[in-house]
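Appendix B. One record, verbatim.
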Amino acid sequence: MRALRWDGIRLALARDVPEPEPAPREALVRVHLAGICRTDLEITRGYLGFRGTPGHEWVGHVVAAEEADLVGARVVGEINFACGVCPTCVAGLGRHCPARRVLGIVGADGAFADLVVLPARNLHRVPDSVPDRAAVFVEPLAAAFEVLEQVPVGPGVRAVVLGDGKLGVLVAQVLVGAGAGVVLVGHHAEKLARARRLGIATGPAGAGADLVVDATGAPGGLAAALALVRPRGTIVLKTTVAGEHRLDLAPAVINEVTVVGSRCGPFAPALAALAGGRIAVAPLVDAVYPLDDAVGAFTRAAEPGVLKVLIEAGG
């Protein structure tokens, strides 16, 4: 089969990768579409030392599984492969399992390929009303909904979202839907214009926010958030970057700021929001590339002003 491979030095499309074989309780999925996100770009800069096939935002259909009624189903999938038996998993925190693999990020080949294997329990059926080009956003949209799981958000909450990329726009839409007053801050005129067309107010933002979400994808995001959040306010960190950077944490201590790390999130509200038309994702797509030109897709995704590039496997 075809798969986009990262060897630590270069991306290249391989055409002779053996098809993966599902183990017990796993499912084999033929990929329709997969999305390139900031984490994928960071992998090509050394993030987590990953080697193999990246890609963790996808939609496809099941071609093999132990559960017969799952075969043929159109699905998306959670990216953390937990052991299910350790104390962390038993406590319901499988996404933090110390032995976990993470699709296309840690120890498991991802979805920039014709076929991908996941634990069957990670799969979620996609409603017929949600087209592939919307379903491919379920994983990042779930990450946006995770903010609501971690922080009280509602009418009267003053929120700032830092970062005008795809995740920032999704987070802003989720917070607006929860009733918060939201300002999106970014540096790209076209991205900000698209956000405004979705009804999102754009910055600059003044200091004193109750909640600041860092979705910049940049090392300076937390420092910027600390300058905007009110005393005893909350910062939610969505940024992961390769490498280390220095930061003065004194403002967080002096102002008693709560800092919350935030990763993956619940798929059910993301699917429901897409099915109900409450979140707009079509305007975020800049280009769709065939899998045969996946390297070109990465080049396009890294360009300034680009929100979302999809890779079509043709499944």
